[in-house]
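Lay summary. Proteins are chains of building blocks that fold into shapes, and those shapes determine what they do. In this project we predict the shape from the chain. Here is one chain we studied, written as its sequence of building blocks.
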Amino acid sequence: MKKIGITGTIGAGKSTVSILLRRRGKPVFDCDQYSRILYQKTNPCYAKMVEAFSEDILDEFGEIDRKKVAALVFNDEEKRKTLNILTHTPVVAAMKKFFENHEKDGLVFAEVPLLVESGLSDYFDEVILVTCEDETAIQRMMEDRDYTREEAQRRLRSQIPVEEQKKHATIVMDNNGSIKELDRKIAGLLKDLEKK
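And here is the predicted shape, written in a compact code that computers can read:
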């Protein structure tokens, strides 16, 4: 089994790559998706988050509002570190379990937005970095997430620069084109990975 990480800056198209891989029958663990479980009232992490960030992060139903958490940690390095400590360990444990459950599969993937920041590069046999032009990412964020141009630019600036991420990647996948083009690239990539 080959363990393959997928990462990239916001708006680059990591999730689209994951969707296209799943369509081709490849197992993909989504760290972001899994982290949503941690925000649920039934999860032990819920109480720890409320304790760390106060009830200001809750909506009118007592659920954790992910947007409120994101806004809170966005400009505060200490709070961001606290959030990462609370969520990182259970997410990584679940990801490792996923790989164990799929050890009979040839290629197994994990979409890890903060792969470089989390120091997980060495855990994977290959690291795919999905990239695109800044303007493409900004347009995608404005269309898909309803961000203003300023919000999108701020999000991009808050991330590790692509050049730094490239140092940790074994494969760089440009995603400035259409989904069809991306799908063709993935088909080629899978052939290459299966040969290795």
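What the prediction tells us: The first strand starts at residue 2 and ends at 8.
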